[in-house]
Amino acid sequence: MKIKGLVLTALLAAATVITGCGGQEGGSDKAATTGGNKIVVGLDDEFPPMGFRDDKNEITGFDVELAKEAAKRLGREVEFKAIDWSSKEAELKSKRIDILWNGLDITPERQENMLFSDPYMDNRQIVFVRHTETPSTIVGEADLAGMTIGTQSASTAEGYFNENESLKNSLKELKTYGDFTSAFMDLENGRIDAVVGDEIVGRYYISKHPDKIDALDVVVGPVSQFGIAFRKDDTALRDEVQKVFDEMVKDGSAKKISEQWFDKDLVKGKE
Q1: pLDDT for 203-246, tens place per residue?
Q2: What is the pTM of this model?
Q3: Region for residue 75 given its phi and psi (left: phi exceeds 0; alpha: psi -120 to 50; beta: otherwise)
Q4: How wide is the angle at C-alpha 69 spanned by C-alphas 67 and 70, nearest 5°?
Q5: How many CB atoms lie within 10 A of CB 226?
Q6: Do residues 92 and 114 touch, judged by C-beta distance below 8 A?
Q7: d(CA 22, CA 164)
Q8: How far is CA 50 from CA 29, 173, 190, 246, in A?
Q9: How far is Cα of residue 216 from the mean position of the Cα atoms in its chain?
Q10: Which of 39, 123, 157, 270 can pair with 196 through a Cys bridge, CB separation 3.0 to 4.6 Å?
């Protein structure tokens, strides 16, 4: 009996150690560090199609699917945490999250405080027109002259028009909307001639409304790039994620996810 008791005590002690090692999976608020089981991804959950809540209130989106596939390949659990996007750098620095993966532009200012992956997508402002059998005559931003153009209020596109008065003054009218969906609806109904806006948002809309709108390969304004952001000193996690993401590009998995969301491969990376 004494021997059995000692064995039982040893087993209980071992179970306690194992439970302690895996305690992070049980819902701890502390973000996982490299080598732990969980990667906590911070995102704006009102940014379709990159990250948003579906009709079941579950977080989904293009970047969410990319992150899930990367975590799967790393053998790590992933948690998606909605954050105040204006406080994203503080959330990352405080270790409440491990990664920002949510259509985040790489800028020199952000690179001073965060460590970025290689760019994985261009963030372009392009032209959208009603679907017709006749090819569009718009081949450059100068061809927008004399047209009524729609865009979202306070968007990158509106900012570009406001900064370029000659281009803005060449338009018949620049109409702004509370969201791009309203602009696209007016485009479908012939109330405006074209929409200038985020390629990712527009192509997502087109995927839900086929044969209504065409996306033209006409870029308006400068092109920025999306990257995955990490804490400045977390090179280990950045390198792990970068490695599996490169594999996703190489084997076509990233392309497949992009085509599911945009009907087009918009992902860039090392082939």
Answers
A1: 999 999 989 999 999 999 999 999 999 999 999 999 999 999 99
A2: 0.76
A3: left
A4: 65
A5: 24
A6: yes
A7: 56
A8: 24, 30, 28, 19
A9: 22
A10: 157
Beta strands (DSSP E) in 159-270 are: 173-177, 194-198, 213-219, 224-231
Cα 22 from Cα 243, distance rounded (Å): 26
Mean predicted lDDT score pLDDT of the chain: 88
* C-alpha distances in Å from residue 118, one per residue of 64, 125, 187, 227, 228: 18, 21, 35, 6, 8
The amino acid sitting at 130 is R
Given a contact cutoff of 8 angstroms between Cβ atoms, the answer to whether 83 and 205 are in contact is: no
102 closest CA partner among 76, 115, 90, 120: 120
Q: Sheet harboring 213-219: ordered strands across? A: 173-177, 148-152, 194-198, 125-130, 213-219
Q: Are 115 and 232 spatial neighbours (Cβ–Cβ below 8 Å)?
A: yes
Q: What DSSP state is assigned to residue 106?
A: P
Pairwise CA distance, residues 45 & 48, whole Å: 8
